Amino acid sequence: MILRDPPHHLKLFFIMQGSIVPRVAPLICLVTAIALAVVLVDRFVQPLPHISLAATGVFGIALSLFLGFRNNAAYERWWEARKLWGGLVADMRSLGRESDLFLTDDILRRQFLRCAVLFTHLHRFALRGPDDHKALDQWAGEDPELVSLATPCAALNAANGILCDAAKAGTIDGFGRKALSERLASISLAQAGCERIRVTPLPFVYSLLVLRTSWLYCLAVPFALIESTGILAPVFAAVIAYVFFGLAAVTEELEHPFADRAHGLPLAAMTRTIEIALAERIGAPVPEPLKPQNGILV
Amino acid sequence: MILRDPPHHLKLFFIMQGSIVPRVAPLICLVTAIALAVVLVDRFVQPLPHISLAATGVFGIALSLFLGFRNNAAYERWWEARKLWGGLVADMRSLGRESDLFLTDDILRRQFLRCAVLFTHLHRFALRGPDDHKALDQWAGEDPELVSLATPCAALNAANGILCDAAKAGTIDGFGRKALSERLASISLAQAGCERIRVTPLPFVYSLLVLRTSWLYCLAVPFALIESTGILAPVFAAVIAYVFFGLAAVTEELEHPFADRAHGLPLAAMTRTIEIALAERIGAPVPEPLKPQNGILV
Amino acid sequence: MILRDPPHHLKLFFIMQGSIVPRVAPLICLVTAIALAVVLVDRFVQPLPHISLAATGVFGIALSLFLGFRNNAAYERWWEARKLWGGLVADMRSLGRESDLFLTDDILRRQFLRCAVLFTHLHRFALRGPDDHKALDQWAGEDPELVSLATPCAALNAANGILCDAAKAGTIDGFGRKALSERLASISLAQAGCERIRVTPLPFVYSLLVLRTSWLYCLAVPFALIESTGILAPVFAAVIAYVFFGLAAVTEELEHPFADRAHGLPLAAMTRTIEIALAERIGAPVPEPLKPQNGILV
Amino acid sequence: MILRDPPHHLKLFFIMQGSIVPRVAPLICLVTAIALAVVLVDRFVQPLPHISLAATGVFGIALSLFLGFRNNAAYERWWEARKLWGGLVADMRSLGRESDLFLTDDILRRQFLRCAVLFTHLHRFALRGPDDHKALDQWAGEDPELVSLATPCAALNAANGILCDAAKAGTIDGFGRKALSERLASISLAQAGCERIRVTPLPFVYSLLVLRTSWLYCLAVPFALIESTGILAPVFAAVIAYVFFGLAAVTEELEHPFADRAHGLPLAAMTRTIEIALAERIGAPVPEPLKPQNGILV
Amino acid sequence: MILRDPPHHLKLFFIMQGSIVPRVAPLICLVTAIALAVVLVDRFVQPLPHISLAATGVFGIALSLFLGFRNNAAYERWWEARKLWGGLVADMRSLGRESDLFLTDDILRRQFLRCAVLFTHLHRFALRGPDDHKALDQWAGEDPELVSLATPCAALNAANGILCDAAKAGTIDGFGRKALSERLASISLAQAGCERIRVTPLPFVYSLLVLRTSWLYCLAVPFALIESTGILAPVFAAVIAYVFFGLAAVTEELEHPFADRAHGLPLAAMTRTIEIALAERIGAPVPEPLKPQNGILV
């Protein structure tokens, strides 16, 4: 995630970080070239059919509709993903407090919370791909059961198994079992929400509809622009391509909030927040929060 | 559900999978033919009344309004359906964990969880039509009570009956009854939400309003295009028909998220996820997750 | 509620069921007549002031804004009402299961569930007007207390009274009282939500704003159309009237989701679903689900 | 709140109740006078600069954006306020039932419910200003502790104090304390929600932005209308002023849902609904529901 | 937060408080100067290429789309932040009541509630920066454990520790531990929600897209205005700059609801509301609510 102040107006046009210009530059060039060719052919080779700009207006309206819809849907996915992780942070802090209150056996409580931290890492791996196996080893310690955990579900099952052990040993009462299993269920709900966003893209047909309409529009618009903007037509075509392909590219990026891209969510930093919340109770050293590197928080 | 990367721009116009072009091709052809006829009659037979493009603009605005509304409503149905199934996956995983914690009798617990898996299959059958009776037999085993289950409600009732048996036998305490009946109620709520989406289509009047306005627009627009786009009028009419009838077709498809179509939700794959979550506790072999076939996950 | 497939394009213009054409036909005729009169006077009697179509465009934008807003708000009311009834179905099924689990006295449990069914009927009566007193008699049986129930609140109070009786008799424990009173509270919340929608219309001022602006637009637009569409002006005026008055009429219908109209919610069918869910536990014969009659489910 | 049927089309233009015309009439007159002056000066004194209507179009779009946003935000505040009160009605009914079930001491239960009714009145006073001190006296009776209650928080604290007394006296068990304190917390949440809406207006800057842009638009548009609508320019300017200032006025009214205006929520009637729900349990006569007076429910 | 009535129409153009004019004045001047230069060069030096206003219309539509989206997203962040604090107020009042009911030890209860007040201050510091260390000292008293609290999480952990102490001492039962830990978890969720809004800005790419498109539009529009508005072109350009840069500036301000700006949320006043709710139970003097100073509530 990019963390920087909005640029001053002077620097505005030269910022590349977080910009979608590099990604859509080839398309902008292509559209500009087509518009330039249309203008040149029309002036020097042979008059081409001029069309009224109003006739392309209906495309503009339809394209706004499609892009506006996709942009809203993609942003809502991104923001819902952030909310789910924010809820996970709160759940983990509450899990720590509730384990203090309800799980009186110190050893079991530490193991229980280590499962929770391992869950967070494994959940992150499941969303973004494994990136930090050292963290797993560090939190699993030498407990063979914890070392063997490979999926977030397995980590929650292990945590639940510790509750069963405590119940058998009589070190947790009914209220504690109810409270902690409700908390695990809440964590499980956030986990399933994140999985839902990861495995369910926006319906594929919208990509087709938006990209095809954008292309048809960009191919038609030079024939309208030669009439109304004259020699500036290629400039206008370039700006139109920037606006529409740019928004399409932004949308595609936000659609995948867990991807490891510039606008992806800072999963590692949020995992660290959870580690900080639980480290002391586990008896581990409290790590430092992650800082943005060059304005990027991962 | 279609799972594939957005196409490269070269292939963009040739992709048929997930495209709505095949479905609306006849309409596009018809509109193009009408526009062509209008142009030819106007040029070679007898001048037709030309109308200003601005006069058709009000249709365009109204149509954007109708289509934008329907598209949003249909997508929200689709996404809500996905959320309900995502919640069901989380509920089932929590049901497994809570049955470990609260239902101490091993035999009853396995039977209880088999009811839950059977519910998932029967729920899917109720939404999409029965497609896999072998799965039912496999999970019901030889228990006559489970074999006779025919509706998702019956499966939940059977699960509840097992809790009653456990309560009578004293192998579940008050906390357990409370926790597990809350979980069943949560599952029941997701079930009723899915049924709601399946049996309540978008109000029929919108279909009429959108289709009639689209047709009136497509019939009027050629008379405006002969003025402003000349010989290109049929091309423009074709694109307009593609955009508006295409979006209407997309909308109709997403309106029915449980239908067995290209953009339907992958109910079978999500059922499999639930089977994987519960299989081990039941003592059954853990099945493999479903993979997309030719980019389609069912 | 209308349950039928979207029409084939041929039949599209001749469907009357669910169409708002009959309701707005007089308005369409009136607007068409005015436009015709304007054209005729302008051509044969005396030239009228022509106005530019762009000048009416600002009305079009404002009207889209108002109609779009009202349409969204009305549809959301309709869909929220459906969600509340869907939640009620889930609550009633869970109530049945929880009464199995927590209310061990058979006689009290049956009476409790009969109160629940009576509540559903009385709730429906309160929303749509009483229509089926036989159902009340059938479910109340000969119990004088149940026969005298007249409001949905009274039915819930009676159900609660049965829980008090059971508590005094010691046949329900604390967990049961907590679980069942939570369920009654959830039902009560759905009830209050439905009442809210029924007694709180959309703010009256929007009706005025939309209808007045629509009329002003329809009166102004012929003066613009004589310029840009010539002799086709009455046709265009008719379509504009259809689109705007039609959407206003749709909105007004969806604004009242409990009314007994073509697009009203199928309250009787949903009540029947609840009867089916609880009949067996009460010891009554399980009724058949309601089927649509001529494509209408009431 | 205005409760009346939408007007027949004949009466439509003469309804003043609930109309915003009286409030914006001075503005409409002013704008019309300016437009008339522009037309007269342009025709008879000295030609003024004519501007193209398209140039004012960008204002129209921006204004739609601002007004559409503010209107949605204001309506959502109004509807959320109504939802919070609807939830309060449900909570109060459930509070009555749960006190039957969990609070076995008759005297304490009555006092508890009188606190609840007093809370409702005091909550209404806090939102709309005190209007009916007789009601307070009636429900407080001669209990000095209840008579002295002056804020909604104090009433809820008193209700909670009664639960503490019952707990000390042993006439309420743990389940009852949990259930009733959860209910009080739910009431407290609705209370805080209403307070939030009352003390937090829409950001002030939007008022400025909307009003300034509306004025600039209304001052610019006559220079465009003299070209495109000729002598009808003042009529058009009047309608534009009606549409934009009218919507701004509607928005401002709905922004304050608790104000004692035509479109304010019927707080007194909803308070009465709560009194009806609890009166019998308290042993007081059940009052009649409030009826609309001249189509207005307060 | 600005609390003042909407201005009368006369004063409307002279209000600076809460206006974004001062912030965007340089941009407006710059755009006006460019437009003036374009007009002067075109008239007196050398004709510049004139472009049709319709060609800039597509920018206008795209810009409305971007600005509308960003404005909605920023307002929703602002309003969600307000909801979270409103929920916090309700949670704190309920925490006070529940501690009365469930935490019978007077000394522990007071210390517990002092932790809650300290949490509120520390939470505010974490969002807006520390501004009032005297308040911390006042509520921490001379208790060394409370004096050392430095983060909101630490304050909640301390509150939880008091519950653990009470549990060991046997002065809180299972219901109390369940109720109060649920309340702490609810507070923790509100805290995490506020943190989420503070640390996650709107995706950076939208700022770039909006600002770049605004600039391109403002640079292109003078070439269109010289045709359609003549000598008034600089005035129109100024208004367009006001509308678009103004909305962008509003958006940026609302995007940061916890910042100490004119439209920031009144965190100090809401903290005071919580102090008022809990002071009496702690045995501290009840402070006065904060009043707006010059129409600003901080």
UniProtKB/TrEMBL annotation, chains A, B, C, D, E:
The keyword NAD does not apply. It comes from Roseibium sediminicola. Belongs to the anion channel-forming bestrophin (TC 1.A.46) family. It holds the Pfam family Bestrophin_2. InterPro entries: YneE/VCCN1/2-like (IPR044669). This is Bestrophin, RFP-TM, chloride channel. It is found in: Cell membrane. Signal peptide: none annotated. The lineage of its organism: Bacteria, Pseudomonadati, Pseudomonadota, Alphaproteobacteria, Hyphomicrobiales. The keyword DNA-binding does not apply. The chain crosses the membrane at residues 20-41, 47-69, 204-225, 231-251. Its main location: membrane. Keywords: Cell membrane, Ion transport, Membrane, Transmembrane, Transmembrane helix, Transport. It is a multi-pass membrane protein.
